[in-house]
Amino acid sequence: MRLLISASLLAAVLGAGAASAQDIAAGERSWNKCRACHQLGETAKNGVGPQLNGLFGRVSGTVEGYSYSTANKNAAITWDDAVFAEYIKDPKAKIPGTKMVFAGIKNDKEIGDLTAYLKQFGKDGKKQ
Fold first, then answer.
1. Which of 4-8, 60-64, 88-92 is predicted least confidently?
2. Quick one: CA torsion of 57, 41, 99, 77, rounded to 10 degrees?
3. Is the whole model's pTM more than 0.85, yes or no?
């Protein structure tokens, strides 16, 4: 009986982990919502929005050569998973005065997938 309960518990834990795992391919599909304004990769340049190489760990408003809103420059937030998730759900709520015009991504799974996709790109634009 004890073995049966332990096996059931293990299966439930493993199943929950698999269900919450990030899907980089799905994140790449989600990236299509971003690519009209942002670039990634070794040839990325600033466009309507700043290039997003090495986003995580970077302070908001600091990509060289991009003309940020005063709000973004003054926000002084460091991008990590939690901050990015909050921001991408509603950019104007997280940084009032941002010039980013985007309705947001509300689905937590999609945000996790997009985060995993973005994290592949180092500061130099190379996939790590």
1. 4-8
2. 0
3. no
